[in-house]
Amino acid sequence: MKVRVAIDFTMLMSSTTVWAPYFFGSYGLGILAWWASDPRRPFGATLALLMMMAMPAVLALALDFRTRIAVASVVACVLFLFGRTRLSTYAGAGWTVVNYVGKISYSIFLVHFPVCLVVNAAFTRFVPDDAYLQGVGVLYAWAASVAAGAVFFHWVEAPLSRLLMMRAKPAAMYSTRAASLYRRSIGSANCEKNNIGCIICLTRKIVMNQNRTSSLRSTHFS
């Protein structure tokens, strides 16, 4: 509900296009598209998420058509369709590239803005004011953003993720061991409280005593 309210508010506030809250609507569309793209989600929940995506976008475009809102809505729909499609079942290098770019997409998101600013400043300063040359600058900024995102993913995001997982494993092992000891203590307490004794514990004691007796006999005869 909070995401829906944010989308409604920011899309209808056309005077805030130069401020960060204006883009909360686009972020909300992306979040809803991600939730709706989960194939394990029930049909009713998916339909509700799609309605929450479509209704504020259509209302905002009907009141004041803006290219940003239209592009954000189309991208959200594409993300939903790609999430519902099993890309790994398709063969070909094209889908491999798409999967890889999706894997490093968060790193691209983190670094693309400063990269684009640097490329924009360089082309504004050193490249003539020509539409075709500046268009090449846009393509260069896009390629540089993807390359910088790949470097950031392999040198920062992936190693940091592995480090956090390594630090989380001892805690998980400790909690598992503690839970096992707790279950054993509970089982022992139940056995002690039971007057007739626990059959499993009694069987274990008999087997242990037999093994101990056998080992003593073998040692004595030897």
Name the descriptors:
222 residues; mainly alpha; 8 helices
Give your account of this protein's structure.
It is a single chain. The longest helix has 63 residues, at 131-193. With 222 residues, this protein is an all-alpha fold. α2 (24-36) packs parallel to α4. It has two domains: 1-85, no CATH class; 87-194, no CATH class. The protein contains eight helices and no strands. The protein is flat. It has helices spanning 2-12, 24-36, 43-63, 67-84, 93-103, 105-126, 131-193, 199-221.
Global shape:
flat
Radius of gyration: 30 Å
Compute the number of structural domains: 2
According to DSSP, the number of beta strands is 0
Helices and strands, in order, run as: HHHHHHHH
Q: Ends: how far apart?
A: 80 Å
- Name the average pLDDT: 75
Q: Strand portion, in percent?
A: under 5%
Q: Helical element count?
A: 8
- Main beta sheet, described? none
Q: Given the helix and strand composition, which structural class is it?
A: mainly alpha
Unreliable residue runs:
none
Determine the fraction of residues in helical runs and give it as a percent range.
over 70%
